[in-house]
Amino acid sequence: MLKLKSEQFYIYGGSHFGQALNTYLCQIGLKPKAILDRSPKASHFNGTPCIKFPASNIEKKLPILVTILGFDGVYESLNDFGFAEIVETLDVFSVFPKALEILNECGVLWMQAPRESQVDQGKCTQLQALWADRHSKQTFEKIVNYRTTPCAPYYPHPERYEMYFPNDIPKLYDYSDLRVLDVGAFDGDTLDGFARRFQDKISDYVAIEVSAKNIQKLNERLFSNLGVPVNVIRTAVGVPEGCSLKVVEKESATVVELVDDKDSDMENFVESSNLGDLLHRFQSNILKMDIEGADFAAIKQASNYIASHLPTLALSLYHCPRDLWEIPLFIESIVPNAYNFYLRQEGHWLLETQFYAVPKFL
Question: What percent of the chain has pLDDT above 70?
Answer without folding.
Answer: 94
